Amino acid sequence: MSSSAPAAPTGRIAWLDLARAAAIVLVVVYHVASGAGYDLLPRDGGAAGYWWSSVNIMLAPIPMNLFFLISGMFAVRAVHRPFARVVRPRILDMAWPYLLWSAVFAVTAWTRYAPEDPVGYMRSQAEATLVVMGPYWFIAVLPVFFLAARLGRDRPRLLLAAALAVYLLAWPLKMLMLTQEWIPALVSEGLYRFTIYAVWYLGGFVLRDRIIALVGGIGALRGLLILGLFAVVTATMFFGQYAPLLERALHAAASLTGVLGVMALLPRAASSAPIARAGSLVGSRTLEIYMIHPLVLNAVVVLYPGSALDAALHGTWTADLLLIPAVSALALGAGLLAHTLAARPGLGWLFEFPRARERNTTTGGSRPGSP
């Protein structure tokens, strides 16, 4: 690792866009399958809900770690710009939609989670939003990680060492905080998310060029072998009970092998023009997808069970195989549609910090601060 600050990159690498797209797709499918699998595929209809949920829980070490790693790699150029040029896209354009859509979630999600106590649920969501424990927590931590990268850009070794130390101390710190009655459990959990994911973002920032070289040298075949190792590690973790230290070690091993294995497959995939275009399309709209998909999922969970369609599909192979992918595609499509709508004049405030009327323009394209 160089002792100098990471240089601002030139050009654009197609597989990085594809990695960002793969991460958001995995996140959406995870939330549909593990968060609502039993709502859509109840146990009395067969074991499909269990399998969809279990497989996605085993895949869980990949999506968010990949998301943060790629976000850090994309941040290198912005970190070198004057702060006045990046305060809007990297901070305000993250903080505003986080607060706005957290409020939207709070006033709508009670229909799924607490239909008998909507006011209490809204209050709990407001508290969760303040301590980064709501559904959009990922968006809230990005500005913090970006500022950390700016502060440490001239000492990348020290920055990465500090992030690694924070990661290693994350679990004992969380346990210590949970023993303190004056610290709310939500605060402990929220801080824990900062501590375990900072190393991925800052690692992507500091090691960008080395990661690109490493991924390019692995190749697809070795990538498949690494994913095989990931499957062994994550299955070991899923089907066993271990001491906290060993469990954390297994989780770290699963995260490293899973993320590296997925990335190793992407350069070959990105060599296909249609796949590269799809990766660019989805990857540049991750903010909208991330904000919209929980709302779509909530609506499906409220409306689908007990409906005529549910009665027709209940217990069928069609539902077992296609319902989770179909709902995931619906949620992804809604996010893409939201991006298109927000690009219209006067609607940019949906996903960007509001601009003065005379400066309001269509948004279009990828936001520099999006994950």
UniProtKB/TrEMBL annotation:
Pfam families: Acyl_transf_3. One of its GO terms (cellular component) is plasma membrane. Residues 13-333 form the Acyltransferase domain. Keywords: Acyltransferase, Cell membrane, Membrane, Transferase, Transmembrane, Transmembrane helix. It is a multi-pass membrane protein. One of its GO terms (biological process) is enterobacterial common antigen biosynthetic process. GO terms for molecular function: O-acetyltransferase activity. It is found in: Cell membrane. The chain crosses the membrane at residues 21-38, 58-79, 91-110, 130-151, 158-178, 190-207, 219-243, 249-266, 287-309, 321-342. The keyword Transmembrane applies. InterPro entries: Acyl_transf_3_dom. Signal peptide: none annotated. Belongs to the acyltransferase 3 family. PANTHER family: O-ACETYLTRANSFERASE WECH. This is Acyltransferase.
